[in-house]
Amino acid sequence: MFEKHIPVLLKEAINGLNIKQNGIYVDMTLGRAGHFFEILTHLNNTGLAIGIDQDEEAINDSLNFLKNNSKYNNYKIVKDNFSNIKEIVQSLNIRKIDGFIFDLGVSSPQFDETERGFSYRNNAVLDMRMNQDNTLTANYIVNNYSLNDLTKIFKEYGEEKYSYNIAKNIVKERSKKRIETTLELVEIIKNSLPKKELEKKGHPAKQVFQALRIEVNDELNVLKKALTDSLDLLKIGGRICAITFQSLEDKIVKDIFNSKAKIIRSRRNLFDEKEPDFKLVNTKVIVPNEKELEKNPRSKSAKLRIIERIK
Q1: What's the rounded Cα separation, in Å, for the pair 139 and 158?
Q2: Which residues, including other chains, have CB under 8 Å from residue 7's CB and lie 6 or more apart?
Q3: I need a surface site. Which of 61, 110, 214, 298 has the fewest CB within 10 A?
């Protein structure tokens, strides 16, 4: 399993959590248990690790790994969306948490499992669901969203400069026949871009595929809610480590963390100040070092931000 998925910024994130042996820690994005397993190794018998994921395959892989390779049993695995963290914690009769870790984006196994439709390099049905129980798929979006809506999500979620051209050609092609596969969509995207864009480094479909994945899974809205609720649940001295892989996620984390850690001044009286309840552990974003980049090229865009509750 660990040959397929290498946890990113593992040492930095675990150090950032500042784990107490008897603490309660939540891995909000369990994946294949890379960070989760490391958290377990830092806990004693009175500590507890909680792993959350909405992907049934990821949960099954993690449970099998933990069963076969771990001496630890002080953990709970929950299948749910991490935006429901308050309800999850309440259902476990827990009031406060010592630390949270978010490892956002798509895991390597999800990318590499062709049938999931996350990758623009392999031919598969257009799916992109993190949670296979959800009904909205990339196929539905591509074949049913209006020209304006497609343009909007490609521009906002993919930051794609040629959003309108791509959306227009999608609408044109689907009028002839449904667009069913990832490579059909890739071909439309390529045909929508000028030659100078196709010659640039990087895959031409990356931004559109990112936009579709975000729309399918409502990723940005659930991240905002999950981060805000996690901050509410944090104990004094507790920390949140958030690893992002694209600018939209990083901006959300940065903005929420900065807003919680800033001094609040009264509009009526500039000298009336309220000290924040949180502090930024790292004011400069943490990124992978050269050794990690060499070992795991997919970590290239990773950024780690850490915040701590101080009162």
Answers
A1: 17
A2: 13, 31, 34, 35, 38, 103
A3: 298
Distance CA 169, CA 219 (A): 26
Helices (H), 234-270: 247-261
In whole angstroms, how large is the CA radius of gyration of the chain? 21
| Alpha carbons 14 and 29: distance in angstroms, whole number | 14
Enter the DSSP assignment of 299: G
State the Cα–Cα distance between residues 306 and 223, nearest whole angstrom: 15
How many angstroms separate the Cα of 146 from the Cα of each of 125, 139, 141, 214?
Answer: 21, 13, 9, 17
Domain boundary among 184, 217, 250: 217
DSSP string, 260-277: HHSPEE-SS-TT-EE--S
CA dihedral 224→299→36→99, nearest 10 degrees, is -40
The CA-based angle 74-78-80, given to 5 degrees, is 160
The predicted structure's pLDDT at residue 200: 92
User: Whole-prediction pTM value?
Assistant: 0.90
Q: Return the number of other C-beta atoms located less than 10 Å from residue 112's C-beta.
A: 15
Model pLDDT for residues 69-93, shown as the tens digit of each residue: 778 889 999 999 999 999 999 999 9
CATH number assigned to the domain comprising residue 176? 1.10.150.170
In a domain, 151, yes or no: yes
Cα 30 from Cα 64, distance rounded (Å): 13
Q: What is the pLDDT of residues 278-299, one digit of tens each?
A: 999 999 999 999 999 999 988 9
For the chain, what is the domain count? 2
Say if CB 154 and CB 163 are below 8 A apart.
yes
> How many CB atoms are closer than 10 A to CB 25?
27
Q: Which residue type sits at 153?
A: I
